[in-house]
Request: fold
Amino acid sequence: MFITLEGPEGSGKTSHIPYLVEFLREQGHIVFPTREPGGTSIGEQVREILNDLKNTEMIPRTETLLFQAARAQFVEEVIKPRLTDGEIVISDRYADSTIAYQGYGHQQDLVQIHALIEYATGGLLPDLTVYLDVEVEVGLKRKKKDDEWNRLDAYTVEFHRRVRSGYLKMAESERWVVVDASRGWDEVQENLKEKIIERLKGDE
Ligand code: TYD
Reply:
């Protein structure tokens, strides 16, 4: 089973993943946590280029293609072999981040974006995508508090608003569940566990 977590900046998804992994392992699953862009040596190198605050001249098309380059490697090297072995792969972001950020955020042609994703992933879709929703101002404030401020975080508030509304549109489809991430951490964690278990049960 392939599970992805998505969300705008400061939704807190990264901090929840280790606890979800532990919880699923306690239930007897073999779980492989990973993150995008990264998860492979090549992906981590691409991530550095993407996040580097010095790369101010990067245009949206370059950004889109770099994310797909990292993703193609990630799918072949990390995700597919584990899914074949029957593991649960849980990824901090995946292709829907490209639709939200490069598609809705940068207002790139969505048909072309979908085609690039299809090329990079060979059509591999998550079985479940959990969207942690938080208002843009709240999320960016949270994010600024930690020192991991990167090139993409520095885009305008308007950009991040388009990202969030893109996510909310995508989250209407059946593959997605939405968790309100503006609540306290414990409550969000409980809600995440419930939603994942519900989907796992439905899968059996
Ligand atoms: P990261 O520091 O991992 O942020 P976060 O904790 O919010 O996931 O940086 C990843 C950044 O890359 C984040 O701003 C979202 C962005 N991103 C895209 O724009 N497109 C993509 O396809 C992916 C995977 C990430």
About this structure: Residues 177 and 195 are 7 Å apart (CA to CA). The domain at 2-202 is CATH 3.40.50.300 (Rossmann fold). The pocket of thymidine-5'-diphosphate is lined by residues 9, 14, 36-37, 67, 93, 97-98, 101-102, 148, 150, 152-153 (CB under 6 Å).
